[in-house]
Design goal:
- The structure is a single chain.
- By secondary structure, the chain is an alpha/beta fold.
- It is 41% helix and 26% strand.
- The chain contains eleven helices and ten strands.
- The chain has an eight-stranded mixed sheet with strand order 4-3-5-10-6-9-7-8.
- GO terms for molecular function: DNA-binding transcription factor activity; transcription cis-regulatory region binding.
Length: 289
């Protein structure tokens, strides 16, 4: 049996991802006719059509989906190999690249990464961005691990592992003052300023449901998406903040802030997201196990 031309397969893989011959040709820096010829040669080699044309777009045939599945695994493994070489897994000092969702608690990140912090054999790189941006980086093997407070599912184009690594109760936390100590929470929530996460936060959704179920009516003093800013503001308002304890763990230990009430059933979950690979990094194993 003749060997497969992986150059043709790479062209097919690019066209399949783009769904458009012209865009794929521009990305590959070849003419559209040359690209079309390469795809045709692959189809002749495999003995079946890979695409059907729908208007200006190309759609995969059923056989094309099967071939794409193999191509994804082949080229992802290739990228994994190059990523391993570039980050130095074959040397004593390894580069470990972590992406964290921009709104994620800095304290949680530090706690999670503590087993490898200060290790002279690991060069740690941290990137903060949106989950969508981080997933794109992970798919290109530019990240080793993502920390998120939102779960994601593996799909055809991005085979991943998403593991819940921690769960933290959400509480009402505020300055350690006599005025707040004289309140009964959560009943007196409508009598003090309340600082809450933004509407896009899962914590906010759970908190709104909690208020509904317990007949609590209140107007938030402020809505804040960023956990670091929520932490700062919790120290300055004369009210309470809806926040996981891990976000303000240092202030609680110092007595600057106090936990007034745990919101039953309201939790924040933290996830570690990694790409499925043939050879798992020993650093990832250390952190997850």
């Amino acid at each position: 049996m003749r060997e497969l031309n992986f150059h043709h397969l790479f062209y097919f893989w690019t066209v399949a991802k783009e769904g458009h011959l012209t865009r794929a040709a521009q990305q590959l820096h070849v003419s559209q006719s040359a690209l079309s010829s390469q795809i045709k040669q692959l189809e002749e080699r495999l003995g079946q059509d890979l695409f059907v044309r729908e208007g200006r777009s190309l759609k995969l045939t059923e056989f094309g989906h099967v071939v794409l599945n193999y191509a994804e695994r082949i080229f992802n493994l290739s990228h994994e190999m190059m990523s391993m070489v570039e980050r130095g897994d074959t040397h004593v000092v390894q580069t470990f690249r972590v992406g964290a969702v921009a709104t994620l608690s800095r304290n949680f990140q530090e706690n999670f990464l503590r087993p490898i912090l200060g290790n002279p054999n690991i060069q740690l790189t941290l990137l903060s961005a949106s989950l969508e941006q981080l997933l794109e980086q992970l798919s290109m093997h530019k990240l080793d691990l993502i920390l998120s407070n939102r779960a994601v599912a593996s799909d055809f184009h991005l085979p991943i592992r998403c593991q819940c690594v921690a769960q933290q109760s959400v509480s009402l936390i505020g300055p350690n003052t006599e005025a707040l100590q004289g309140k009964e929470f959560p009943r007196d929530l409508d009598k003090v300023p309340v600082l809450v996460p933004g509407v896009s936060s899962d914590i906010r959704t759970q908190f709104d449901m909690y208020c509904e179920e317990n007949n609590l009516q209140l107007t938030p003093y402020a809505e804040v998406d960023d956990m670091a800013m929520l932490r700062v503001m919790s120290r300055s308002i004369q009210g309470v903040t809806v926040v996981p304890e891990v976000v303000v763990q240092d202030e609680l230990r110092a007595g600057v802030l106090k936990k007034y009430c745990t919101l039953e059933g309201v939790v924040e979950k933290f996830y570690a997201i990694t790409a499925k690979r043939e050879f798992e990094s020993t650093i990832i194993s250390t952190l997850l196990n």
